[in-house]
Specification:
The protein has 438 residues and is an alpha+beta fold. The chain contains 13 helices and ten strands. The protein has a five-stranded antiparallel sheet, with helices on both faces. A five-stranded mixed sheet has the order 6-7-8-10-9, covered by helices on one side. The radius of gyration is 47 Å and the shape is rod-shaped. It binds adenosine-5'-diphosphate and magnesium ion (MG).
Length: 438
């Protein structure tokens, strides 16, 4: 007698996942088996392979359950025969017909799917020849069965031809395989639908993210337009209130000069005019400064950042240390980086709740790098994009502007862990214009 092959459990699963119970709806198969038993008079057992878990049993003979299996000594013989039968039947194409240890004929067929045996269908019990009653009398004695009742149970076992039994067995095997096949394809279909559903959800999320991003861009554009308007109004009123008034005063003094009078008095008026013109020059300078950063071209970015640091200290009481001041920075990058550094330092002043911050210029490979760092209260990066209506545009617009130049922004921060913002712009675009030292 053969022992069941010893292989790992998962190697018996279909596609490494599915056991027969996943593929077959037993609630639907059980009534088919029952009707089969009523109709043919054969018993049926449906067992998983290789676990031998009994999924369905119907129409089993009285001689088996009331005698052979009910007695521990004879039941051992049943189990041994059963295991041997199942092991033999687990091979593709097997149609096994064998007498059990008690002399009754059993039949077994595998349920094979994709070349794997997932279950075995056992049917029986029958005789191919009229039973030798003397033998069964001895059996009754050996295991202590009630001889009359035992022999009556033996007589209930039908005697059939081997050919007929074989056909019925094959039919059952084919039926179970067909049902498993359907189950397998239904399952494969379900897996495909799941994958598709996941894909659709992912696409939808990506689409929503893209839309959200577009909306942020639109809001940024609107904010920039508003800021530009505000700035224009501020400049207009500065020019009107400051420069305009000074020039009107100059005009008035000039018209006084034009009148004939004492030359000594004229010297006094000239002095007033000189003062007014000085104020006008001063006012023009501060206007020019607020419009752009001419010093960036002459002094370079690190030096202008040191001036900015002084302003930030005056305005917010934040001490800014500037490091790597000898780092060369391409002219085209300076204004953009300057604005970004200012935004980042104002962020530290507004949000970080610390008295100090650091700006460090450096070169990394073929790229310019600026790092703005503080040891303040920090923030959760996830919160940046999440509540977009609340989130400011500072970091977002730095990222967008840098991105236009092929650069990128990396932020390292967590609540309580300070914040480091790293701006990196590769030289590719500015290679030829890198000055010696800025
Ligand atoms: N250095 C920092 N320390 C702590 N939190 C910061 C820092 N920089 C930025 N943040 C957080 O990130 C958010 C987004 O910054 P930003 O885009 O510049 O917008 P805004 O400054 O207008 O709020 C801030 O509201 C703040 O919560
Ligand atoms: Mg900000």
């Amino acid at each position: 007698m053969n022992d069941p092959p010893t292989t790992s459990k998962s190697s018996h699963l279909l596609d490494g996942h599915y056991s027969i119970s996943d593929l077959i709806d037993m609630d639907r198969l059980r009534p088919v088996f029952e009707r089969f038993c009523q109709f043919t008079g054969y018993g049926l057992a449906f067992m998983t392979y290789p676990d031998e878990e009994l999924l369905a049993v119907t129409g089993w003979r009285e001689v088996c359950f009331a005698f052979h299996r009910a007695n521990p000594a004879s039941a051992g013989i049943c189990f041994k025969s059963n295991s041997a039968l199942i092991a033999k039947a687990s091979k593709p194409g097997a149609r096994v017909i064998e007498p059990c240890g008690h002399g009754l004929i059993d039949g077994a067929v595998p349920v094979i799917l994709n070349g794997k045996c997932l279950a075995v269908l056992v049917t029986g019990q029958t005789f191919f020849h009229p039973p030798d009653m003397e033998h069964f009398k001895r059996q009754a004695q050996r295991f202590g069965y009630d001889p009359d009742k035992y022999l009556a149970a033996i007589r209930q076992v039908p005697v059939v031809s081997e050919a007929q039994f074989g056909i019925i067995l094959s039919f059952l095997g084919d039926l179970a395989e067909f049902i498993a096949y359907l189950g397998y394809h239904a399952l494969a279909l379900r897996a495909k639908v799941e994958t598709l559903t996941k894909e659709i959800a992912e696409r939808k999320r990506a689409e929503e993210e893209a839309q959200e991003y577009q909306q942020r861009l639109r809001r940024l554009a609107l904010q920039l337009t508003r800021a530009e308007d505000r700035e224009r109004k501020r400049l207009a009123s500065n020019i009107h209130d400051d420069l305009g008034q000074v020039l009107s005063a100059v005009m008035m003094q000039l018209s006084v000069l034009r009148q004939p009078g004492d030359p000594v008095n004229r010297a006094g008026e000239m002095e007033v005019i000189e003062d007014l013109v000085k104020r006008a020059v001063e006012s023009t300078r501060s206007l020019t400064r607020s419009l752009s950063y001419p010093a960036l071209d002459d002094l370079g970015l690190p030096a202008c950042t040191e001036l900015l640091a002084e302003d930030i200290d005056k305005l917010y009481g934040l001490k800014v240390k500037v490091l790597g001041v000898k780092t060369p920075i391409a002219i085209e990058l300076r204004a953009l980086l300057f604005r970004s550094i200012r935004e980042l330092l104002v962020n530290v002043a507004k949000h970080a709740k610390v008295p100090a911050a650091t700006v460090r210029f450096s070169r990394r490979g073929q790229a310019t790098r600026v790092m703005v760092n503080d040891h303040g209260k920090g923030f959760a990066l996830a919160s940046l994009g999440s509540d977009s209506k609340q989130a400011g545009f500072g970091l977002f617009s730095i990222r967008e502007r840098l991105h236009d130049l092929g650069g990128r922004v990396a932020i390292r921060s967590a609540p309580g862990k300070g914040a480091t913002v790293m701006l990196t712009v590769p030289d590719a675009v500015f290679k030829k214009e890198l000055p010696g030292a800025a």
